[in-house]
Amino acid sequence: MSLLLKKHIREIIPALSDQEFEYVMRHFVPVKRQKHQFLIQADDEVKSNYWVVKGCLKLYCLDDDGKEHILQFAMENWWVSDYIALYSRGKSEFYISCIEDSELLSITMDNIDKLCSEMHAMEHFWNVKKRFGYVALQKRIVSLLKNSAEERYNQLLEQYPQLLQRVPKKMIASYLGVSRETLSRFNAGQDVM
């Protein structure tokens, strides 16, 4: 696990020494969850950010009718948490559950703050990760506002083809904001091409 995280961090901070990385690694805790288990549930106090070492997860909310609305998937090398609750130190409005058996590395917000105050390089790392997250969020919102459902599906297929191999179609439909039947029509159109 630690070698994968080291590679991930060094993509942004190539000069991070082995000794510095060992210090950083002491602030992470390994977490394992089985398929269908929750990482976070609504009303949980959220204290940690999670980096996916292995597996696939979904972040979602439920509407008043109990319908699931998926906001994010998280696969290997991705970060996931309820960032509203994490940054406000509040309780979650979301659920994060495992689509597959998953292994993660967890770091508390307190430890992120500690590392940022002690190491400029780690402060830079977290700032870059936040920027990437904001950009991805804005792109998703713009896509939901401007693109047709079929365009959103094709964009997802192009950006994350491996995701469509790992996630049930029902969940893909929820993420795209379409019915399962609509998604099936897109798939039928792909088969013809």
Automatic annotation (TrEMBL):
It comes from the Bacteria. Keywords: Kinase, Transferase. CDD domains: CAP_ED. InterPro entries: cNMP-bd_dom (IPR000595), cNMP-bd_dom_sf (IPR018490), RmlC-like_jellyroll (IPR014710). Residues 33-117 form the Cyclic nucleotide-binding domain. One of its GO terms (molecular function) is kinase activity. This is cAMP-binding domain of CRP or a regulatory subunit of cAMP-dependent protein kinases.
